Amino acid sequence: MSRPRVKNGDTVMDKTHLVDEITGHRRMRRNRKADWVRRMVQENRLTVDDLIWPIFITHGTGISEPLAAMPGVNRMSVDKAVEAVKEAADLGIPAIAPFPDIEMDLRDPTGSHILDANNLMNRFIRETKKAVPNIGLITDVALDPFTSHGHDGILRDGIIVNDETVDHVVKAAVMQADAGADIIAPSEMMDGRIGAIRRGLDAAGHQDVGIMSYATKFSSGFYGPYREAINTGGLLKGDKNSYYISPANGTEAMRDAALDVEEGADMMMIKPGLPYLDICWRIKEAFGLPTYAYQVSGEYAQIKAAAMNGWIDGDRVMMETLLCFKRAGCDGILTYFAVDVARKLGRT
Ligand SMILES: NCc1[nH]cc(CCC(=O)O)c1CC(=O)O
Known about the structure:
The longest helix has 18 residues, at 162-179. The protein is built from 12 helices and 14 strands. The protein starts with 5 loop residues before the first strand and ends with a helix. The protein has 2 domains: 6-39, no CATH class; 48-347, TIM Barrel. Helix 3 crosses helix 4 (120-131). The protein is an alpha/beta fold. It has an 8-stranded parallel beta barrel with strand order 3-6-7-10-11-12-13-14, surrounded by 9 helices. The chain has a two-stranded antiparallel ribbon with strand order 1-2. The protein binds the ligand NCc1[nH]cc(CCC(=O)O)c1CC(=O)O.
């Protein structure tokens, strides 16, 4: 009787080893043994088409200022931001998502400045559309950059009032579409907003403007650095638990997402990203809509901080996290790493 002999690297396996005959026939490592076969069996890939770049814009001109908690990310005035967007388009990044840092004295309890056709956001949209027509503009309509209390809606007697906020949000969405926004991405999690925005856009002749729903936005500690970037951190009283979803609730998140689909969302987004990959998978499986994850500011900061301490290989973890979103069913990722990744992919 000849004994089973399996060549595994330099070792000739035989019955002196503990791997049994049956296990010995099922060797996962055959498909991992060399770079060429690893490439053949690779199931998911990250490409530049998967990247959406969130950027912070501020008032003034000639400004590009670093953000302490987001090393490598700058807050830019419109002129500088448009230059940066041009570069992103040249790298092949399909779309950007701007967030405005509104002047403090323009903020008020109802966020009324969001309804100014000439506010920072709308000016940026117009300038970018003109200068870089081939990049997609995905714009948020939440009130938080515009309110004096940092909440995403109108605050009355300690409560964020839903329906009045939605009226504001719809008007703001139409104005952003008038300015040239391609996709409206409402992040304020008010009930009924997707249907209301759809009707508002259609009534204004913007049938072609899409809606990417922040379908499941969780009440998360990972938004910290973003609040520094648009200067809402110091303003915010209390928390956003009365409108964002609890991190404990996956089934509730699915119900919320289902309503957005019914109301006419074209695309879905999950935010934050990495701690919520189960939700990404469930949403993609359940609805089959184009689905995106937002790798938020705190996720970016974590990776950068650990990398700067020499505790992890920052580039490697950046690429790994983004690939994991693809494996979890996402069609793309909003990530502050977008330009770095596009450059890296362009080189390989
Ligand atoms: N409408 C609020 C909004 N828009 C984008 C982010 C977070 C983005 C990030 O952390 O990168 C938030 C969260 C918040 O402040 O509650």
